[in-house]
Write a structure and sequence with these properties.
Two copies of one chain form a homodimer.
Chain A lengths: L1 H24 L4 E6 L4 E9 L4 E13 L18 E12 L6 E11 L2 E11 L5 H15 L6 H12 L1 E2 L4 E2 L3 E8 L4 H13 L1 H12 L6 H20 L2 H8 L4 H4 L6 E3 L11 H9 L7
Antiparallel strand pairs in A: 1-2, 2-3, 3-4, 4-5, 5-6, 6-9, 7-8
């Protein structure tokens, strides 16, 4: 059965990713098994106040419902209101060190009757930008997709730039990555293999960056800027993110959905980085759509 | 002209409220005059890092547009897409002392052709609850409305409880107050007088509470709880608040709209207050709809 095959992959990936994250941090993720009154449930694994991660969540859920919310699919509005099954692996890591970027990865699978599709991707949100890191992340995304066709990476890279955009700020969330939705190309096996490849490239895309930056010295200035920029992460997730809205609208488990929010965030009226500062460089050189590979 | 009369009141009220807030804090509000490309503009007055207020914003805006967004009025969907004029006074005060509640007040006026209506209200969001404060705030709201009819306060109090509700948390934002929208009762003069009375009762509703609590000693524990609860304020404003969504959707000035967000906020996975603690008392005794007067 398709659903079971996808779920098995998501559960195995959650274990593997959590083990790799724990090995780097030295801390242990908590494990919460939860059920949803309307059907289904999930496993939420969290690590807070770790040596490396200030807040890290890796969540797997599998739910079914009688009526698909409109936020679940942008391009299949005719399915709104239909019975559905939805499952996904979602992770957001907020490292403590401001030189380590925040990262998000997601793999999801929807089915409604005979219709099914995958969605997912990963994207990187630095506080201080490094060209080397953005290139490595994007190159790994490209490698994940290359076996399935040369046009996937440029399409999904562009989609990511369009999706992770704070329209009210005229800003992207970070340096992007890849995003896809409504994937039902060729047949199930092909689409499943592509989704799996993206998910399995998460650790090689992100861990080398974390290892490179986690020892960088920082002070209050860098923490303040990190908190300010984390405010943008909050704005994006609560105002625009379809996964978050779908979860909150469909009676999802709030604490598991909002594990994506940062441990701390700050807002400051009309704040502008000083000319020539590293904070200004983030805006000028990194928070602009660029071809990284 | 109706629009000018309402705008004059809002501008005078902004001056009077800012002067009263400055007198208590000792600091000075900055003044930003801004214009909106699509028409109109506003005056944003902010005080950050003050002695009493950690972040305080008092904003007046007057904008017009060619197409009214759906978020502008819940009960007049037939006006969506029509040319409109919208003006409002909006304030949010986030005091530094966790024993001082956050407060919000709003007065707004919409017109679209021959149709016009007022909206507004005020509500209180304590971090540590005091029955005396909640009673005083609600009693002042009741007094503001009493001259216009005995049924306004109970209706607008209930409306406030329904509106300022985090459905994904099953929690109210705070201890409520009054909320109204689509007010066009009797004639313009009557509705205007009611809206004015509510706005003019803001200072007597809130300042005595601030004066009573601002000297209370507090430590890291109270600041941590305040930051955690301020996360709820962020969640409400970005997920549910119609004024915020209207502003962001209609190309409003982001920094003026998001002046309502707290200076700092925190999220912590599945956090629960200790049994018998003052933090638990907030949830049990204050974050429940109650008749305060």
């Amino acid at each position: 059965m398709r659903e079971q095959a996808v779920y098995d992959l998501l559960a195995r990936l959650q274990d593997r990713i959590v083990a790799a994250l724990e090995a780097l941090d030295g801390g242990r993720f908590s494990t919460d098994l939860w059920q949803r009154a309307e059907g289904g449930g999930g496993v939420t694994r969290m690590l807070e106040d770790g040596a490396v991660y200030e807040r890290a969540g890796v969540n797997v859920s599998r739910v079914h419902g009688a009526s698909l919310p409109a936020s679940a699919t942008a391009s299949r509005p005719q399915l709104a209101g239909r019975a559905y099954e939805a499952m996904g692996l979602s992770l957001v890591l907020h490292p403590r060190n401001p030189y380590c970027p925040t990262v998000h990865m997601n793999t999801r699978f929807f089915s409604a009757g005979e219709t099914w599709w995958f969605g997912g991707g990963m994207d990187l949100t630095p506080y201080y930008g490094f060209v080397e890191d953005a290139r490595h992340f994007h190159a790994t995304c490209r490698d994940a997709l290359a076996p399935y066709g040369a046009d996937y990476y440029p399409r999904y890279k562009r989609w990511c730039d369009e999706y992770f955009r704070l329209r009210h700020r005229g800003e992207p969330r970070g340096v992007g990555g890849i995003f896809y939705d409504d994937l039902a190309d060729r047949d199930f096996d092909f689409s499943f293999a592509l989704a799996r490849s993206v998910a399995e490239h998460f650790l090689p895309a992100y861990m080398p960056i974390l290892e490179r930056r986690r020892g960088a010295p920082y002070g209050e200035r860098e923490r303040d800027f990190q908190a300010y920029r984390r405010g943008r992460y909050v704005e994006f997730n609560l105002v625009y993110d379809r996964g978050t809205l779908f979860g909150l609208q469909s009676g999802g488990r709030t604490e598991s959905i909002l594990m994506s929010l940062p441990p701390r965030a700050a807002w400051r009226y009309d704040w502008q980085p000083a000319p020539g500062s590293p904070e200004e460089a983030l805006y000028k050189e990194f928070l602009v759509p660029r071809d990284w590979v």
